[in-house]
Amino acid sequence: MDRKTVNVEIESKKEVPAEALAAARHELGEHNGINMSIEASNTFTFKDSDAMNRAFLGEVGPKTGIYIYSRHLNPTILNLGRQIAAMEGTETAYCTASGMSAISSVFLQLCNTGGYVVAAKTLYGGSHALLTHFLPQKCNITTTFVDIVDLEEVDKAMIEGKTSVLGKVVVDNTFAPMILSPAKLGADVVVHSISKYISGEADIIAGAVCGPADIVDQMRDPHEGPFMLLGPTMNPKLAFEISGRIPHLSMRMKKHCKRAMKYVTKMKELDPNLDVLYPGLKEHPQHSLLKSMSNKDYGFGGVFCIDMKTEGRAYRLMDKLQNNSKFGFMGVSLGYYETLMSCSSSSTNSMLDTKEKERAGISPGLVRFSVGYVGTFEQKWSQFTRAYSEM
Fold this sequence. Notes:
Helix content: 25-40%
Number of strands: 12
Oligomer: single chain
Order of helices and strands: HHHHEHEHEHEEEEHHHHEHEHEEHEH
Distance between the termini: 59 Å
Structural class: alpha/beta
Strand order of the largest sheet: 8-9-12-11-10
Mean pLDDT: 93
Number of helices: 15
C-alpha cells in the first residue's frame, strides 16, 4: 500500500460513507484496466529467502507488496477490505467467508478462556446461539444479555477487569450499511454479513470485520491470529464480484429505506390497530435516537415488522402474500431486491427459549419484512392490501 492509499484511508474516516467509498479508489487492473484484477493464486513467491523469512516474522507484508498465502491475505480480498473499511470509517477491514465466521473470529480474538461478554438481548439468532451454547461449552466464555438502551442495566452487568466484549464495543451493522457508521459513534469493531445488503442479490455468503489496525492485524497474525489459524477465507473471485456491487450500495439502501417508510405509513392508514414496528414511525421508542445517529438522506432502514399476535395468523398472512398476491417471498435473509418475509419466532430466532423471546420482544406472530424495491409501489401495495383483506 503506497502513501497515497494510506492518506485516502485516513481521510475516509472524516467523510460520509458514499464520499469515503468514492475516495477509496481501488488499484487498477493488471494492465491498467478500470476494474481491479483477480489474484487467484493461493500462494506467493518471494524475491529471496530473506524476504520469505521476514514475511513470516511480520516484518514485511502487503504494504510492501509481499504476500504469503491467500488464507492469510490476498491482494484482491485486501482491496475489497479497503472499500469496506472506507465505508465504515475504520482503519482497516478483513473480508471473510461468512458473517458468522467474522463474528466468531472476533469473539475468539477478544475473549480468552473464561472470558465474559455483555450483549444486547436482541442479537441475531446465530450470534445468540454462539454466545449461549457454543462458546460457554467449548471455551468457557459466558454472556449476560441486557437491554442495551438501559444504561443502568448495562452498567450492572459489566464486571471490571473481566468484561471482554462491551469493554471492546462490537457492533453488527448488517442491517444498516451506509445508514449508520458505528465506528464514528464509538464502536471498536464493526462486523457485517456481506451476504445481505452489501451483496444485494441473495446469491453469495460472505462477511467482514472492520476496526483498528492493531486488532485486525492481530487477527491475521501468521502464528496466532484466528483468520490465519481458523481459515475463514473469502474466495478472491467472490471478492472481485462484491467489489463491483459496492458502488451501487448507496442507491440501493435509499430505495430500500424509502419503500419501507411508504409501506408502514400506508399500513397504519389501512388499519390503525395493526401493530407495526419500524423506527421510522414517530411513535417508535427509538425514533429520535436513530434519527440523531444516522447518516443524512438514508432514512430508517429497510426492515419492519408486523405483529400478527399468533403464529397461525403470521403463517396465514405470509402464505397469502407469497402464494395468492405475489407480494414477496418467504425467506430468512434480508437485503434482496424482492421483499422477503419470515416469522422470527419460528425461524431466525427459533434457538431462543420462550423467556428469551419475550425479553427480546419477539412474539409468536411477529412477521419480519425485508423490503424489496422491484416493481412500482402502487403495484406492490395493491398486492399487500389484497392479501391482507383476505385475513
